[in-house]
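2024-03-11 09:14:02 INFO receiving multi-entity request
2024-03-11 09:14:02 INFO entity count = two
2024-03-11 09:14:03 INFO echoing inputs for audit
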Amino acid sequence: MKMLKAIIRPNKVDDVKDALAKLNIAGMTVTEVRGHGKQKGHTAIYRGKEYNVSLLPKMEIEVVVPDPLADDAIKAIIAAARTGEIGDGRVFVMPVSESYRIRTGEMES
Amino acid sequence: MSIPTSARGADASAQSGAMRAAFEAARAELRADVSRGAGGRASLERYADRVDALLRQLYQDAGPPAGPVAVLALGGYGRRHLCLHSDIDLLLLFGEPIGPDDERFVRGFLNPLWDLGVVVGHQVRELADFSQLEEDNPEFLLALLDARPVAGSRDLFDRLGTAFHVASTHAFILKSLLHLIEVRHAGFNSTLYQLEPDVKEAPGALRDLAATRTIAMLTDPLLLRRGPADPARVDAAEDFLLRVRSTLHLESDRNHNVLSHELQERASEILGYPGSEARTRVERLMSDYFRHARIAHRSLEWARRTAPVPVGPNLGLSRDGIRFLDQVQAARNPASWLGAFQAALDTHTEVSEEALSCIQQHVDRYRADDFFPQEADRRAVLRLLKPVPGLYDRLSEMHDCGLLGRVFPEFQAISWRVVRDFYHKYTVDEHTLLTIRNLERTSIANEGSRRRFQSILAGLAEPELLVLALLLHDVGKWRDDDHALESVRMAEEVVARLDLSAEQRETVLFLIRHHLRMSLVAFRRDTEDPDIVKDFASFIGTEDRLKMLCLMTLVDVEAVSPETLSAWKEELLWRLYVDTYNHLTQRYGDELIERNQAELDHVLRRRPEDLSEGEITGFLEGLPQRYLQLFSRDAIYRHVRLARDIKPDEVHLFLQSDGNVWTLAVVTLDKPFLFSNICGVLSSFGMNILRGHALTNPNGLVLDVFQFTDDEQFLKLNGNGQSQVLHVLEDVVSGRSDVTARLRGRERSVLKGVARFSPVVRADNSASARYTILDIVASNGLGLLYRISRVISQHGCEVDLVLIATEGEKAIDVFHITKSGVKLTDPEQQALTSDLQRTLEDTL
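2024-03-11 09:21:47 INFO inference complete, emitting structure
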């Protein structure tokens, strides 16, 4: 299993969700996050005063998928979240060694 | 006092002799009582009754009056506390205008009294005199409260009561009484422990007891039962003080009320205090005096503290909140109910349970229109909706007692309405009220990220429109389909009932129709994309709407559930606001009205007969597109007319007022220093400019629209004020007169100590394609715009567009400028901004 952690633009959540659903990936965790990568924020000016907006609002989507699905899922996320501009985000891929269902206690492979 | 009937009709001297004998007999009787130490309430009342009989006899003897007349006892005599040398205060009340026959009657009535040596304090009035409150004579009004009919027409007395005993008069008398008490007490250094007390006037003396009873009578007749002293003890104190006063009158043989050392000895003897030595008797008398005076004093203090303070017509502020002084009257007058909630907001308290029950009991009898029948009532509804601390609580009280749903039946439709979704945690009505609570909290947010929204709210000219929109934004949820459209349909009825102006209606309906739009763009669209912001800005049109919709979104999302508005969402919303605001204020000069534009078509199609298509397009073409969004069609047509046949150095203007705020539209032809001259002229008349727009079209036609307050009431106090302003404007614009000279004295007087924060000046060439944008934020003060724009003109710059706004003490101005038709170079910008900075800091 792989855990995919995607940091994406807030307005792309629905697109990404839809794209993953098409791959029959239903379970996911969505979190409102703030941060910056290469985009590093920018300076906003309001009424002549500069405001440094260093941490930008982003969405984080976490999904755990079976190994064979991981590549397709990554591609789907990238395709759905991409605008081509700086600030489109990242996808991190992490191995997941075990997973348990809390209700039953059983381990899932 | 009985006067033998046989005396009637006998000769005058026999008659007056009998009367004198009867009067003297009554006084002798009182003297005897007082000498026995029994000159208390019972004997004084008996004496008053005897004088009553005498007056009735005199009334009869004076012959039948021409019209209805009533003789009324006032003040102490009205209360039947008539001491030996008290003045006999009378009101001779006539039902009709007083004629010569009536004057004869008055003489016939009063002359014999004077002959008897009675000191009469009399007033002769017509009933019609009481149709208006005599505010300059509160003592007379107080005496009238004790009015008692002695002779003549009882019906007239009742009619006086109807005219006199109204809530507003009672409120005025109460206020005056509280003031009189304060002044009187101050005269005694506010202490009752006087070695030689005045038993009538001193703190704790008879007047205090009368005042306590009056306060109770005016506010709550049962007040005394709840007071610090048992009513019987209050009565005992009064009887004691009256007995003492009676002995003073007897011993001094005049209207003397000071219990001096010398009289203390006599009084203690007469009142039968035991003790072989005078000193012992006096000590006992005085300790009794202080004991009773303390009761009187405490009772009054308690009544002053507890009694409802009048805060409006039929409204009093008491410890349990705002109360109706007269519930029966309140029940009949639903238009006064909203006043109770306004009074609670104004005095930072709640509406009392008693008043809420009264409303709840009667509310079903009335329809929406009954609550605001007059124009003033409709304005009061809007005023009530200003977002101030306590508004949520008051609206909740109104909702709980059924009033809110009666005033706005549309709101009733969502009462306890449950809509099941994943997000909302409250019924629709509570969600709605919570949006208003959130706005109210935003209005006082002093720290953290919310403060930036507070500054937006502070800049709204009519925040009550936003509250009205919030109140109605979800009323369409009584149905299950698209609620925003249904809410708009229902809100249309409300704004029509409230008789809002066309602009106000459009604002409220726009906010309701699009209340979900900004959250959609902020949270679901890529706001990094300039086109998204541009589209949103052109959809919004004006900063005012942007500000309102931004706040509406903030408080609406926050009212869904405690978790819905995260810091993350707040940030997204704020960024969309800033980007859109910048677009609206900095780029609008790039988007000009063009022929064949849909909005232009709209203006042309509905034009009035006196305006030709050519005239309108000639005026509009080349003005920024936002002009069409900023002004109503009527205003646009007015501006076109102002521009008609304008010649160099001419000024055409239109001035109108809406409440405290004036709007001035000026049309003229452009020339250097024009904007600064116009601002200077307004400042020279003491006008405080709040907001405005300066626009220039490519043909050099200038339209400036200012909203200002006339702080020195120049326009109000001068009938020809408008033409004076026009003359001065023409003189200054044509160069015949110098505005600097007009302003010199004023600037000096206002520049001292006005600045409260350091000014911000920023020039930017990247925001607009055509202009250098100059953002200025500074402390607002008289002549500020004049000083700024004069510096800009001194640098040889053209001022094409200006946006003027204020938020409380803060002035926010955006200038679109060029120099010789192009943007300023970097060195030019630097020179200008540092000069401006210096000018603004000089005013620090």
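2024-03-11 09:21:48 INFO post-check: The CA atoms of residues 75 and 107 of chain A lie 28 Å apart.
2024-03-11 09:21:48 INFO post-check: The interface with chain B takes residues 9-12, 14, 32-34, 44-49, 51, 53, 57, 83, 85, 87 of chain A (CB under 8 Å).
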